[in-house]
Amino acid sequence: MRKRSRGLTSEYGRREKRPxxxxxxxxxxxxxxxxxxxxxxxxxxxxxxPYHILVSEIMLQQTQVQRVxxxxxxxxxxxxxFSALAGAPLxxxxxxxxxxxxxxxxxxxxxxxREVTERFGGDLPSSVETLETFPxxxxxxxxxxxxxxxxxxxxxxxxxxxxxxxxxxxxxxxxIKDTExxxxxxxxxxxSNPRDWYYALMDYGxxxxxxxxxxxxxxxxxxxxxxxxxxxxxxxxxILKMLTNESxxxxxxxxxxLAICPEKLRDNLLQLEKEGFVKRKWRQFTIA
DNA sequence: GTCCGGTTTA
DNA sequence: TAAACAGGAC
Length: 288
Hints:
The chain starts with 20 loop residues before the first helix and ends with a strand. By secondary structure, it is mainly α. Helix 1 packs across helix 12, helix 2 (50-59) runs antiparallel to helix 9 and helix 10 (159-169) packs across helix 11. The longest helix is centred in the N-terminal third of the chain and has 18 residues, at 21-38. A 3-stranded antiparallel sheet has the order 1-3-2. It has 3 domains: 10-38 and 155-218; 50-150, Endonuclease III, domain 1 (Orthogonal Bundle), CATH 1.10.340.30; 232-287, Winged helix-like DNA-binding domain superfamily/Winged helix DNA-binding domain (Arc Repressor Mutant, subunit A), CATH 1.10.10.10. Strand 2 and strand 3 (284-287) form a beta hairpin. It has 15 helices and 3 strands. Helix content is 54%, strand content 3%. It binds a DNA duplex through helix 2, helix 3, helix 7, helix 9 and helix 10.
């Protein structure tokens, strides 16, 4: 006779390592139970267009759902498919990106669109491995696309998923590494419907933000970021906002409007030039 | 480990 | 004010 099966965590059995099928079932039913009553209705859910999914996933990197929701549909209508985005001027793409932050994503999205049209005949690849070869697509984004656009039973972690598993399975632990969490994600994955399963996990993770301390603070990967006011990020954002609203500007003109020290402006313009945001021609700066 | 946006919420 | 955000690149 088989040994007594063991639970996933203290909630399902003390000091146990391997999950029982019953424990897995119980966890899945809790997550799906919450999902039935509290699912978020979002414009990039329950759709099949891989381009739309890609745009949403790039936008959602480190960016709140509500903010993406306000930009996503106009972006899609402005650039309806890979070839439209690939052929659009960067200036127009950056204009539609205004307010989302991390403007490099606008560049990489355009680059991805170009590569998809040129190397893949306009079809976004479906494997995590290939998706990860694109700029701006790492493991999390590649996996999300595979799950949401192609119903692939991939195992991955992002901030909402991480919060769920830390809260439920690592209740009294600190410095939890993602490599410790991933086996739990794998064991509990609903392989019959990974797309809905990950929707449900994420919605549950959003709920866990309210009412108590963020469980993700017990993640080994948690770190708070440097202040925004006075940062290069702020300067870069202001420069790009100006340049998307003008045909071209001199360094002097930008300096007048920003009122920062000249060295800081020079460094940022050089950096933006290097990253492909702006071009310099006859001492005038324009969007590249 | 650090940098990269900009907004909302507590 | 701080904190957090469907991360990725270097």
